[in-house]
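User: Run a structure prediction on this.
Assistant: Running it now.
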Amino acid sequence: MAENRIEDNREGTIIRLQGGFYDVMTPQGEIRSRARGNFRKRGISPVVGDEVVLHIESETGYILEVKDRQNFLVRPPVANIDQALLVVSAAEPDFSAHLLDRFLVLIEAKEIQPIIILTKMDLLQGEAEQHVSEAIAAYRTIGYQVIETSSETLTGVESVRPLLKDKTSVLAGQSGVGKSSLLNALEPSLALETSHISKALGRGRHTTRHVTLMPLGDGLIADTPGFSNLDFPHEMELEELRWCFPEFVALQDDCKYRGCLHLNEPGCAVKQAVEAHEIMSSRYTNYGMFVEEIKNRTRRY
């Protein structure tokens, strides 16, 4: 008697890449799948978060189609993200407005909703506590949602859970800021590997090695490998950068010149707001550094 073969087509979401296989979540459950060879010929590389069409043969899936993406992050490689939880530590490693602004620009450029998660709030004391508190207030004034947490004391952790409902989220941040610890605090059964900060280097080692979408809080969340630095994509132009600072956008119609880059132009409303302490000086300083970085990259290429 011939062996029974089960064949059908299903739709699903790639939740994990491992050993050349794609684990796809479908309404009927997870299917371990391979990509057809013609994807490589067409320059298509399926990533976590992609919505795909599978052909099932005897419980093995073959990806036939990758649907159009809502958005795509190159680093980490993940697609169709609703929001980014940008995790920055208040201490160990020290709070870095420069790194946070870099993350915010990369996320704003993709038109993904950013939410700032401050971790290790229990470690703050003295002048550092005042500095971080002032920064939190300033980012909230811009319009960013900021949640203060401690995975050690569980303070603020439950404030994260409602944000995940019915969303596909990416959790991103520098190595050692406590991303995996935050997820473990939200769902202890995950038992994700964590690491301590190197006292000599002031940073942690990568404990998350692959991008994986996990069900959490009635949504999906990607715990991503940590980064020590992030480069701006080659396609980002100076004109685009100014749109990634919401407080600049709010004032740009008051600038003397249309298309003002807020650098050396006379009658710039943004520079006036910086001088009047209505815009964070650190944000404007970082903007200037990002401008130079993009200019230097353009000259190199």
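Residues 281-300 form the longest helix (20 residues).
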